[in-house]
Amino acid sequence: MTTVEQREDWAVRWGPYALLGVATLVSAFAADAVMTSAEMEVAAALVLVSLVWQLCWERIRPGVPEHGVHGQVYFAVRWALAFVLTWLNPFFALYALQGYFDARQLLSPRTANAGFVATAVTMAGSQSGGLPPQSPMNWFAFVALFAINAGLVLLFVRLEVQRDDNVRARALTIDELQRANAQLRQAHEENAGLHAQLLVQAREAGVSDERRRLAAEIHDTIAQSLAGIVTQLQAAADSEDPAVARGHVERAAVLARHGLGEARRSVQDLGPSALEHDALPVALHKTVEEWSATAGVRAEFTVTGDVEALHEEIEATLLRIAQEALANAGRHARATRVGVTLSYMDDEVSVDVRDDGRGFDPHRVDARERAGGFGLGGMRARAERVAGTFEIESEPGCGTAVSARVPLVRHA
Known about the structure:
71% helix, alpha+beta, 5 strands, single chain
């Protein structure tokens, strides 16, 4: 209990005893002036009855529910005793004052005002000269004093009710704020857990993406170089002319050195070596020429639009896609002619590789790529990694065209 609640409990518990004692003492001093001997005897008996009634109530009070019938009966009997005592001696109205203090605790909200009004009747009778009023002036004073007592007490009670309502509303607001704070703390803890989980997932995704990148780089560099080496060595073995065979062996050595360099750069997460000293159009032109010389297939390279310096990742992506498309054309297409076009547009840049080879069914190849290949699926993954798109157009016997479109992100 708070200090205020303790004081209220003390007033409810001991107030009736204190007021009855004070009222009895004051009334005893004035008894000779306002009471007869018979009235004194009746008043003495009623004081004893009031004391016994208060003791009985104090005995059962702890187990009585608030606003229950027992409390209403106790209040009514006590008011009746105080009213009769005040009728006998106006100074006993001091005992009746207790009705102002505990009417709200003992009576229901509907009957509490009636208890206040009844107490005001007793107080107005005492203040107007005693009960019953003896003259018209006494009656006028009784009515006026009753109106003042009742009006003031009802006003104060209304203010107290409003105060209690405000206190309850404030308490509810505090409880809601505490619950909201608890929910915010819980949400913060959950967010912290989710953040930690996202960090773990991001770390795992980064590891997985790095593995895919290295696998794609190895496929685009080492695998292609090894395939070229095998092709050149096989050609050297099949050639009867020592000079021609020596040329194939030299090309195989060049491819081996190139593949070794690319492997080292891929492991170190560097861009293609072709872009170290040349811009994308020049690097693509050289790539097309080298591939044409190695594969023995006529290849043409075209640039359209206004050439711009692109972000390193964009240039590397387009170069790798073109290299993979050329490698696929050399291994599978059996083409006699290949065309590579690099196009600069307003907000996009694209690379298109076309051949007049035997073509294929893209749907059947898609299933194989999803099973773990790095060819067409790798090109698509590269384009999508930089928010681009990748398309394939091919039919058996009608050649193949691949197109990669990526955002035009300028060099910083």
